[in-house]
Amino acid sequence: MAAIDADRTETAAAAIRHHYDAGNDFYRLWLDPSLTYSCALRENADDTLEMAQERKLRHHLDAIDAENATAVLDIGCGWGAILERLAVRHGVARSVGLTLSERQAEYVRSRAYPGVEVRVRDWLDYEPDTRFDGIVSIGAFEHFARPDDSPTEKIGVYREFFTRCREWTRPGGVLSLQTIAYANMERDRASLFMQREIFPDADLPTLAEITAAAEGVFEVRSITNGRLDYAWTCAEWARRLRAHRGEATEIVGAETVARYERYLKLSALGFRMGKIGLLRLVLAPYGTGFFGTGDGRTR
Prior knowledge:
Elements: H1 2-20, H2 24-28, H3 49-63, E1 71-75, H4 81-89, E2 94-99, H5 102-111, E3 116-120, E4 132-138, H6 151-168, E5 169-182, H7 192-198, H8 207-214, E6 218-225, H9 227-243, H10 245-252, H11 254-273, E7 276-285
Parallel strand pairs: 1-2, 1-4, 2-3, 4-5
Antiparallel strand pairs: 5-7, 6-7
């Protein structure tokens, strides 16, 4: 699988740079202060974006029992909101973040959070020197497969991810995963604009593909669909970007601003219509429970 891994890593890195390296100053204009660039968790009609993003971060931190963790891995760490909370609020001794964006890595390093290290590395190339009490991955999973992958190939990539996460997790640890997924929209009807202009060389999973890939490797402890949360989140981002259109144009240019406004509008619509969903899953490795055999089976 080495040749496939190298090809995927290069493709994924280029795609991430295309999108996320638009610049920290640009994203700061329309994200919340934590620079959390993923679906918020909204519970009340009067929630602000800041409140809903903080609730989402708490969801993932609670899922991995961050309060009692000593080592955590964040796959797709973004600008480090999870890493900051692990270090500062929960006192986790060691937290490792993986990203493919140099600008995101530079930002996290500049914060000098205690016990935090960030690496510009694909999970396919990562070889940890320790096992983790918990793994968090928010918004990275949808970048693992490519549009030209067959369903079987997609499941194979996802299964490789789950297999590695199981190997990297200590007994009793969990994986808290958040990803966009196809819902009532067929794969071949996906927006070419989104595939070419926004997230090139990326393809969404389906719930069936995720569960097929996890079978025998991870037990799905819980799963929720937050698509309406993401419709609201995208609408909030779009509103904030419009409010700062002039400043954003000075930073990235009118064409890029128009592209992002279109992307956020289409995304909000897709989530509202149920074409795409937002899955939050908590998964525990098989073979680590009381009756575990260590090979994914139970007695």
